[in-house]
Write a structure and sequence with these properties.
With 390 residues, the protein is of the alpha/beta class. It has 14 helices and 11 strands. The radius of gyration is 23 Å and the shape is globular.
Length: 390
């Protein structure tokens, strides 16, 4: 077990087990579809909080016309974005992307500027993809609303409700909105009739653009995503939204998706119904999480130091998890208990590391008593969240 915590990494057979577990982690995959400059990057920035530079470097080519961005890390993604490029170019053939993405994508997000109606090739390709999997939800995000009423602030409150109408219909108008915006929304809805399930007008802008509400319609779009995703995937997406919304510290805002991703990975390992298998996997997952967090904070050596402190202070979950392994002989109940403890313990360890690092930055190395209290406070809160299904 000591070998697992060393920076050399786990043996190759454990790598295969990690890969197998990743395949079972409930991380939503969003297939982004739309022309260049249609607002796809703004959507990724809004959902993840990542900067444009991080998004640009995060995407990696995966087919001739598409690329993939697992967020926050490829090891333990919370969300994965598949971005199809060149759909507005003549001769685009979605066959390659269908072969690569059809089984992966849980939801398709089509981005279209509100004032742009030159998307015949986009509709044609989308129709092919839609026919290949008619039950997969498709959400149309109508972006750049301010282009229809330049130099004006958006009306408040947000006036559209996409969930108040049958699937495929224009969003219900429940407040005041400029006439041109309402007309264009209806015309765009007619253009995509039969191809999309929900239509959400949004305007995601940067502060320097001068709009009071820089995420206009964003909360409604997230609600539509939650309603559209399969039930098994909603919890991960909802947790990311709730946790990220409450964060103010820059480092912690970037650290939370990493913690959540590894916590989901650990919970999946903890749910394996075979007793004691996860006792080998969980230290690997937790060690990788702490090292990723250490790199995020810019001090990789702190990761090793913290892991040594955590081991000596007994902050890991192995003792408690070992006791609970016996319960796995009870069908269903044991897996649920193992998943809750594994996910909560990993989450608590990650939060404890963030607090440890913040205090070190301030010149105060936490005492052993402080570390234990911090960890167990986080563990108690995390267990309530995981077992309560929030």
């Amino acid at each position: 077990m000591k070998q697992l915590w060393k920076p050399d990494g786990p043996p190759p057979d454990l790598e295969k087990e990690l890969a197998s577990i990743r395949d079972k982690v409930p991380a939503p995959v969003f297939w982004q579809f739309g022309k260049t400059q249609s607002g796809k990057t703004s959507l990724v920035r809004y959902l993840t909080g990542a900067a444009d530079a991080e998004i640009g470097s995060g995407f990696r080519p995966c087919t001739r016309t598409s690329r993939m961005f697992p967020f926050p890390t490829a090891t333990a993604p919370v969300l994965t974005f598949l971005d199809t490029r060149g759909v507005d170019e003549p001769g685009y053939d979605p066959a390659d992307d269908l072969a690569a993405f059809d089984r992966q994508a849980h939801l398709i997000v089509v981005s279209s500027r509100l004032t742009d109606f030159t998307h015949g090739s986009v509709r044609e390709a989308l129709g092919t993809i839609r026919r290949a999997n008619p039950t997969r939800p498709v959400v149309l995000a109508l972006t750049c609303l301010h282009e229809a009423h330049p130099q004006q602030q958006h009306p408040q409150p947000y006036p559209f409700d996409p969930l108040a109408v049958p699937a495929g219909q224009p969003p219900a108008l429940i407040g005041e909105a400029p006439d041109d915006v309402v007309r264009l929304v209806r015309e765009q809805s007619a253009q995509f009739a039969g191809l999309v399930d929900r239509i959400v007008p949004i305007d995601l802008t940067k502060p320097e653009e001068g709009f009071t509400d820089t995420a206009y319609g964003g909360a409604v779009l997230k609600r539509v995503f939650l309603e559209s995703l399969p039930a098994a995937l909603r919890t991960t997406f909802a947790r990311l939204d709730e946790i990220s919304a409450a964060l103010k510290d820059l480092h912690l805002r970037h650290a939370m998706p990493v913690i959540l991703g590894y916590s989901s990975l650990a919970a999946t390992a903890g749910a394996v119904p075979i007793p004691f298998v996860d006792l080998v996997m969980l230290p690997v997952i937790q060690a990788r999480m702490v090292r990723d967090l250490a790199r995020l904070y810019g001090n990789p050596e702190h990761g090793t130091r913290f892991l040594e402190a955590a081991t000596s202070l007994g902050l890991g979950l192995l003792a408690r998890q070992a006791i609970r392994e016996i319960v796995k002989f009870i069908p269903f109940v044991g897996s649920a208990a193992g998943a809750a403890l594994a996910g909560a313990s990993t989450y608590a360890l990650g939060r404890a590391f963030c607090e440890y690092h913040q205090r070190v930055h301030q010149g105060h190395v936490p005492t052993a008593g402080m570390m234990r209290k911090l960890y167990h406070d986080q563990l108690a809160a995390a267990e309530r969240a995981w077992t309560g299904g929030k």
